[in-house]
Amino acid sequence: MSSIEPGLLARLSRALQRRWWQARPTAATRLLRPLSALYETLAERRRRSTPAESAGLPVVVVGNLIVGGAGKTPTVIALVQALRALGWTPGVISRGHGRAEGGVAEVRRDSRARAVGDEPLLIHLRSGAPVVVGRDRIAAARALCAAHPQVNLLLADDGLQHWRLARDAQVIVFDDRGAGNGLTLPAGPMRQRLPDNVPRRSVVLYNAGAPSTPLPGWCAQRRLAGAVELGDWWAGQPPSLEALAALKGRPVVAVAGIGSPERFFSMLRAQGLSLSPCPVPDHHDYATLPWPPGTTDVVLTEKDAIKLDARRCAGTRVWVVALDFALPGGFVSALSQLLPAPPPPPAFPAFPPASVADP
What we know:
8-stranded mixed sheet, disordered C terminus, 359 residues, 19% strand, alpha/beta, 5-stranded mixed sheet
């Protein structure tokens, strides 16, 4: 009986989560509303009893009001680039979801995803920004500042409900699923209730073609940047649209371990690929390869690639498909207005002209 129960619970959980994303609460989710009310009460009590602490630098928090992924990782990577263009030197702190180790750790190029988290490692590789992970975001911030004194702004990845961290601005990210049925856990997907208005010192970004909630915001511009073989991706080779186009007409297995795999599959189909979808759970560890033996071509996301060694995939061509994610100018401008002016670049010391001895 005990061997059946985990599978049964998993099926019930998946069935419940499918109902979360329906526009209106179903009979099953309405039955859970008392538990949602208890969740909201406890969450609000925790928020009110947690004093906010300053990290010592301006902080921009990026997060969701819903559970799971909605596009935080590409948003953080794009924000690093946008903030640099404004004159900031950003660093990133993150909990490092799914890491096997505790404590605070700096993410390095040779870090393993299971030690620091798949998303922090991808953020570091794609942006080059310093990244430090830790359940205690204040401790992570202090460690990052001590190791990288040139950093003058912090991006907190997935820190919206980390009330202890004081913040100057918040970026609230939604995807095309919006707020689902609008209910909080466990009756719905919301970590917090959807507010009537955009919260103070916040901006809303939609990882979607159009706003998916009543909150005003901006839509990110998304497209596939191309494909590159897994070994070349690890070597730093850029993706190409030509390589992606060359996959047309081939039998391709598409793998995605992200919050909304169907979004990735739809973008591939829009490029003309004929694919067999292979969704895996978010943050899948790839201890075993999920595609059938003998598969010739596999395409997957960068978040999946970060956990795969090309040597494990002998006999299969594994293609990493990258996302080109651009932030609207109006969004960047609105966010910058919530921040202080970036400090001026450090001045080089003035040296007196060298004297020339008389011959």
